[in-house]
Automatic annotation (TrEMBL):
Alphabetical list of Pfam families matching this protein: DUF2400 (PF09674)
Protein name as it appears in the record: TIGR02757 family protein
GO BP: any one term: DNA repair
Record GO terms (molecular function): catalytic activity
Residue spans crossing the bilayer: none
Organism, as annotated: Campylobacter jejuni
InterPro entries registered for this protein in UniProt: CHP02757, DNA_glycosylase
Length: 254
């Protein structure tokens, strides 16, 4: 119990320190771009392109003209020529914008996510509903396009769904760090946006026992973080991520 109280105190201190504008802008992070625009669709694009090197992600996001989501599809294709990012080629990026433009004309992301979430207060249900909706909007398929939106699962996901859970953290939590635009989804129902840094750090701190980087680890870590804060377990996410990034774990454990 003593060790648990000590760990909670240190993580609470670190979360208060890291969940700030100042800390966010210390190193490149896609949330920086999302915060500038404060828009659910732009934030989604920022989150789903958030794979690979953080500096490269931010540099790419700065090149995007998000206002294209409001234009005709012909104009979207014209304006998004010669643009690519890692797995996504020019055609993939054009089709991503076209798909999201179609969705934007039909329903808000908040409404889409909330409709699925509120049935069981389950954010994974909301992610699945979004993916299923995307499939109905565009028949286009390629490795890059499908990677961007993710693979629909049967029964239970195996993927940690890191980018989607990160998006929901941004949209649901409301503080100096996160946007808090999805007000009817509760912070207690969020899942940790587990990346390899957070996974490794959580193992080291004893917050996680499962060594496989998957959805089961997400559930285990989230449950353990609920022991630290039942109402807002994911407030520790950014702090754990930055701790893993900075390699200051030995200093933290002192």
């Amino acid at each position: 119990m003593k060790n648990f109280i000590h760990l909670k105190a240190k993580l609470d201190f670190l979360a208060n320190q890291k969940n700030t504008d100042h800390s966010l802008f210390e190193t490149p992070d896609p949330l920086q771009i999302a915060k500038i625009h404060n828009d659910e669709f732009i934030a989604l694009i920022c989150a789903l392109f958030a794979y690979g090197n953080a500096k490269n992600i931010v540099n790419f996001l700065k090149k995007l003209d998000f206002s294209l989501l409001n234009l005709q599809e012909k104009q979207i294709k014209k304006e998004l020529k010669n643009l690519k990012y890692r797995f996504q080629n020019e055609k993939d990026i054009q089709e991503i914008f076209i798909t999201l433009s179609r969705l934007k004309n039909e329903i808000s992301l908040y409404e889409l996510f909330y409709q699925a979430y509120q049935k069981r207060e389950n954010t994974t249900d909301a992610i699945l509903a979004f993916m299923q909706k995307i499939k109905t909007l565009n028949s286009y398929s390629s490795y890059g396009y499908d990677f961007f939106f993710g693979k629909i699962w049967q029964n239970t996901p195996t993927s940690p769904l890191k980018r989607y859970n990160m998006y929901l953290r941004w949209m649901v939590r409301k503080d100096e760090l996160d946007l808090g635009l999805f007000t009817k989804i509760h912070t207690k129902d969020l899942l940790i946006p587990l990346d390899t840094h957070t996974h490794k750090i959580s193992l080291t701190l004893g917050l996680l026992k499962r060594k496989i980087y998957d959805y089961k680890s997400v559930l285990e870590l989230t449950q353990n973080l609920k022991k630290l804060d039942a109402n807002d377990p994911i407030k520790y996410d950014f702090a754990l991520y930055r701790l893993g990034q900075s390699k200051e774990i030995d200093k933290f454990k002192e």
